[in-house]
Amino acid sequence: MSATYYYLWSTDGGLLSDLYILILIINIIMVISIIFFERKKPSAALLWVAVLLFIPVFGFVAYLIFGQTIYKERIFKIKEDDDRRIREIISRQLAMVKSIRFLPGEKAGDYNRMREMLLATNYATITGDNEVEIYTEGEKKFEALIDAINSAEESINFQYYIIRNDELSKRIVSALSEKARQGVKVRVLGDAVGCHRLPRNFFRELKDAGGETAFFFRSKYLHINMRINYRNHRKIVVIDGKTGFVGGFNVGDEYLGKGPLGYWRDTHLKISGSAVYSLQARFFLDWNHAAEQDLEFFNTFYFPEMIPKEGSVMQVVSSGPDSRGECIKMGYLQLINNATESTYIQTPYFIPDQSLLDALTIAAESGIDVRIMFPCKPDHPFVYWAGFSYLWDLVEAGVRVFLYDKGFIHAKTIVVDGLVSSVGSANWDIRSFRLNFETNAFIYDDEVSAELKKAFEDDLEYCTEVTCEDYYKRTHAVMFKESVSRLLSGIL
After folding, report:
1. Domain PLD phosphodiesterase, which positions (predicted)?
2. Is 202 in the same domain as 183?
3. pTM as predicted
4. Are residues 454 and 402 in the same domain?
5. Cα 392–397–402 angle (5° rounding)?
6. Of residues 79, 179, 268, 410, which has the active-site annotation?
7. Which end is more exposed in the chain, N or C (fewer Cβ atoms within 10 Å of the end residue's Cβ)?
8. For residue 191, what are the β-bridge partners?
C-alpha cells in the first residue's frame, strides 16, 4: 500500500477524516438554515435535519440536489412579479368571456365556489366557449399536433418538459422549421433537465429557418445540472393564439409506445376557445423568464379576437414554486370534497400529503366510489414503492386501487361524478404540488367529463385490482423497499 493511499484512508486525522469533518460542519450550517431561514413544512424539516446529522455524506449530497430552497425567493422574485402583473392584465382582458353555462342541477353551486376560489388565488380566468378533443394514445395526439403545426399561419409557441433526440422529435422539429421558413413565428421552450440529452445542434435547422429556442433554468455547466428542483414540467402548445394543447405527453418515441415500458397510456387535450388565451399567457410568462425577453401581451397577433359561442366551461390553472399556494392541489381537494357519487384518478406517481390522504379517506368512508389507477411497472422505482406504501393505506379505507397492466400509464386526470374533471401535467405527488411548474385544465362540462370517465372505465379491462389480501402477502423485501422509500419521500 502506497503512503498516499494510506494517508487518504487513515482514521487518525487523514485527508478523508478532515473532509468528513468539513461535511459535518457544513451540514450543521444547513440544519441552522433549515430551522431559521427556510420555510419548509415541519415534517420535511425534521426529516432533513435527521438525514443531515445522522447520515452526513448522503445527506450532504441529497440536500445539494433535492433540498436547497434558500435562494428560491431571489431566483423567482422577478418571475413572480411579472406573473402577478400579467395575470391581472389577462384577467381584465378576458372579463367579457366570463358568462358561464352552469352545470345542470343543484351541483352547479358547489363548482361555482370552486371556480371563484381558483380565480381568486390563481387568476384562473373562467371561459365558457371552448371545444375540447381528448387524446389517450400517442399516435393520434401527435398526428393532431403535427396537423395543427402544418396549418399554422402566424405563430407557434411550443413548450415541453422532455424533448428526445429521436425520430418523432426530429419529425416535429422538421415541421416547425418548415413553418419558420414560411414566415411563421416559431418558439420552442424546453426544460434544461428534461432536455439535457439533446445534442447542441439539435435545433440548428429550426434556428437557421428563423425559429427561436430557450431552456428553462439552464445550468452554466453544459449538461451538468444539479438543480433537480424547480423544473418546468408543463406541456403547452399554442397555434396562432387560437388552438392549444395541454396534458401529460412529452415528445419522444417512448410516448408512441416504442420505449422499454411498452404501450404508453396518457391523456392530452386539444382546446379551441378563449381558454387558449390562458395557455398563451402561461407560455409568455415562462418564455420571458427563460429567454430573458419581454413578449408583448397586448399584441392581437398572439391574442386574436374569438368568435363568441357556447362551449365547455374551463379554467387553466398553473402552479409552481413561484406561486404563493398549491393551487392545483387545492383544485384537486375541492373536486374530491364536492363528489357525491364517484372520484376516478389516474396518475403514474402517488406521493400525497396528509390533506389529500384525509380527503380521499373521508370520501371513501362516506360511500363515494373512489378509484385510483396506477402503473403496474415503475419507471422510477423509488417513487413507485413510495407510492405503493400510500396506496395500501387507502385500500384499507375502502379506496379501490387498480394496477394498469397493458403498459405504462402516465395520465394525470381526475373525474368527479362524470361532471367535472382535470387534465394536465401535475402528478399526484409533493414534487408536482410544490417544486415543479405545472399546468392543468379544470373542465366543468358533463360531456367532456363523461368521455374521460368512460376512458377510465375502458382502461379497467387492462387492470388488476389490489386488495387487502395482497397487502398481507407482501414479502419482507417489498415491505423494506416501501418503508425506506416512504421515509424519504418527503424530501426527495
Report:
1. 228-255, 405-432
2. yes
3. 0.83
4. yes
5. 50
6. 410
7. N
8. 216
Contact criterion met (CB below 8 Å) for 431 and 462: no
- CB count in 10 Å sphere of residue 477: 8
φ, ψ for residue 378 (rounded to 5)? Answer: -95, 145
- Same domain for 79 and 31? no
User: Is 453 a residue of the active site?
Assistant: no
Residues 308 and 336 placed together within one structural domain of the fold: no
- Min mean pLDDT across 27-36, 294-303, 336-345, 386-395 is at 27-36
| Residues 21 and 136 placed together within one structural domain of the fold | no
Whether residue 410 lies in the annotated active site: yes
User: pLDDT tens across 232-263, in order?
Assistant: 999 999 999 999 999 999 999 999 999 999 99
Q: Is 417 a catalytic residue?
A: yes
To 10 degrees, the CA torsion angle through 274, 277, 280, 282?
-120
Q: Which of 319, 341, 375 is the last residue of a domain?
A: 319
Q: Find out whether 267 and 413 touch, Cβ atoms under 8 Å.
A: yes
- Of the residues 83, 286, 353, 417, only one is catalytic, namely 417
Boundary-marking domain end, from 319, 347, 380: 319
Reported as type and span, the H/E element at residue 390 is helix 381-397
Residue 81: which residues within 8 A CB-CB, separation 6 or more? none
User: How many domains, the chain?
Assistant: 3
Is there a catalytic annotation at residue 412? yes
CB-based contact 372:350 (threshold 8 Å): yes
Residue 300 and residue 378 share a domain = no
Q: Closest Cα partner for 452 from 269, 275, 327?
A: 269
Candidate list 40, 107, 179, 235, residue with the active-site label = 235
Exactly one of 233, 289, 329, 453 is catalytic; name it: 233
Same domain, 273 and 379: no
**Of 79, 412, 453, 481, catalytic:** 412
pLDDT of residue 69: 55
CB 335 within 8 A of CB 366: no
Q: Which three cell numbers stand for residue 168?
A: 418523432
One domain, residues 112 and 53: no
Farthest CA pair distance, the chain? 83
Q: Which domain holds residue 462?
A: 327-488
- Read off the CATH number of the domain in which 462 is found: 3.30.870.10
The kind and range of the H/E element at 293 are none
